[in-house]
Design brief:
Structural class: alpha/beta
Strand content: 5-15%
Largest sheet: 5 strands, mixed
Distance between the termini: 34 Å
CATH topology: Uracil-DNA Glycosylase, subunit E
Radius of gyration: 16 Å
Family: Belongs to the uracil-DNA glycosylase (UDG) superfamily. Type 4 (UDGa) family.
Protein name: Type-4 uracil-DNA glycosylase
Helix content: 40-55%
CATH superfamily: Uracil-DNA glycosylase-like domain
Number of domains: 1
Organism: Aureimonas endophytica
CATH class: Alpha Beta
Order of helices and strands: HEHHEEEHEHHEEHH
Strand order of the largest sheet: 2-1-5-7-6
Domain Uracil-DNA glycosylase-like: 36-196
Number of helices: 8
Mean pLDDT: 96
Bound molecules: uracil
Length: 202
């Protein structure tokens, strides 16, 4: 059974306030704060990342660090206004190991992803978007409830319940990690084409 916290929140503000005290998995303790989703109540599209990074943990907002820059550039290129979208993560706390003064990002475990999943369900229930965009395999698996590969699911509209669609694309941090400029350019282009599909769908 998935952990529940009090009553079902009726608004995003209520959900956000409740999530501040979430202890559904151990990640709450070392993290600075819960990084809940951000965006308007009835956004036509929800973007789902993996989990907040170092800068998001400090700012309390999703996608404000280096991956956020890649994301913002792709939105701008496609003509999507980020303020009209709801942006969130599969896991709402930063996971890291300290190394000197730095905090090195760690991938969330399956258990942490599962423990956090009900928050994304609440966000989707309240926002009721036309389109859910999964940025990377963790987000895709969280939305679909099963492990999937980017290769098998990318760049096409997948039916969700109640007429909503899912679009799976890469995580912007994946592009940043690519070793050579050619593959970065190629993957940036492919990511931008996926954002064009978002623009055309919402
Ligand atoms: N990576 C994510 O998946 N989400 C963020 O909010 C930032 C980086």
């Amino acid at each position: 059974a998935e952990p529940r916290h009090g009553n079902q929140p009726r608004t995003l503000d209520e959900a956000r306030a409740e999530a501040r005290h979430c202890k559904a998995c151990p990640l709450w303790e070392p993290a600075t704060q819960t990084v809940f989703g951000k965006g308007p109540d009835h956004a036509p599209v929800i973007f789902v990342g993996e989990q907040p990074g170092d800068q998001e943990d400090l700012a309390g907002e999703p996608f404000v660090g280096p991956a956020g820059k890649v994301f913002d550039a792709a939105l701008a290129e496609a003509g999507i206004d980020r303020d009209q979208a709801y942006v969130t993560n599969a896991v709402k706390h930063f996971k890291f190991v300290p190394r000197g003064k730095r905090r090195i990002h760690q991938k969330p475990s399956m258990g942490e992803v599962k423990a956090c999943r009900f928050w994304l369900e609440i966000e989707r229930d309240l926002v009721r978007p036309k389109l859910v965009v999964a940025l990377g395999a963790t987000a895709a698996a969280t939305v679909l409830g099963k492990a999937v590969t980017i290769r098998d699911t990318r760049s096409r509209l997948i039916d969700l319940e109640e007429g909503a669609k899912l679009l799976v694309t890469v995580h912007p941090a994946y592009i940043l990690r690519l070793p050579d400029p050619e593959s970065q350019a190629r993957e940036t282009e492919a990511f931008h084409r996926d954002m064009d599909l978002v623009r055309a769908t919402v």
